[in-house]
Specification:
Number of helices: 6
Helix content: 25-40%
Largest sheet: 6 strands, mixed
Strand content: 15-25%
Distance between the termini: 35 Å
Number of strands: 8
Number of domains: 2
Length: 200
């Protein structure tokens, strides 16, 4: 359950171990929102949930911003879990503070995807606990971000993203390359490790 999968913050270890004697599954007894990281393993079904949230967010965003929807609704070529949660999916050790989900589009010559656009959604399940500061959520916070890339080869999303990360021409690419990138879409590539590049 959650007992050994959460790292305490702001409380003494003594108090933490005292809380461990509470009934298993008692989230309030384990400190709830006071836990900074979850060490529960991320499963394929969790990746599918994140992909679903990203799809719903894109649909909502494009409905509110039809001008952007006109430019980008048909240009998505990959969605990926990035940063610390992606690294945790690989090693089971990094822990999860929140989930960073990035949608990648082929750049429209008319205008780039709005890089400042970011949405924050509730994961909706208590499996990984809660993100500090978002105690009103049922689950961890999910950050949804988008980028448009020049010359993206939509037939090879893995190769395109690896090239983007390897070249590191932008601050975003350099930041993402510091940890891990796991594909959520295309659906047939769910769970594919884009980064770090694995040697055969």
């Amino acid at each position: 359950m959650y007992n050994n999968a959460i790292e305490p913050t702001g409380n003494s270890l003594c108090g933490f171990f005292q809380r461990l004697v509470a009934p298993v599954g008692s989230w309030q007894a384990l400190g709830g929102s006071m836990m900074s990281r979850s060490y529960v393993q991320i499963s394929k079904s969790d990746l599918e949930l994140l992909a679903q949230l990203a799809r719903k967010d894109r649909a909502h965003f494009f409905s509110r911003k039809p001008a952007t929807g006109r430019l980008y609704s048909g240009r998505l070529f990959a969605v990926a879990l990035c940063q610390g949660a992606a690294l945790h999916y690989l090693d089971g050790k990094n822990g999860v503070k929140d989930f960073d989900v990035w949608s990648f589009y082929t750049k429209n010559p008319e205008k780039p995807f709005p890089y400042r656009r970011r949405a924050e959604l509730d994961l909706g399940i208590p499996k990984f606990g809660k993100t500090i500061g978002y105690e009103h959520f049922v689950g961890r916070k999910v950050d949804l971000i988008g980028r448009s890339l020049n010359g993206a080869d939509t037939s090879d999303p893995v190769g395109t993203l690896r090239k983007y990360l390897r070249e590191g021409k932008t601050e975003s690419a350099r930041q993402l390359a510091q940890k891990a990138v796991i594909l959520l879409e295309p659906a047939n590539l769910l769970g594919t490790v884009v980064w770090p590049e694995m040697t055969p």
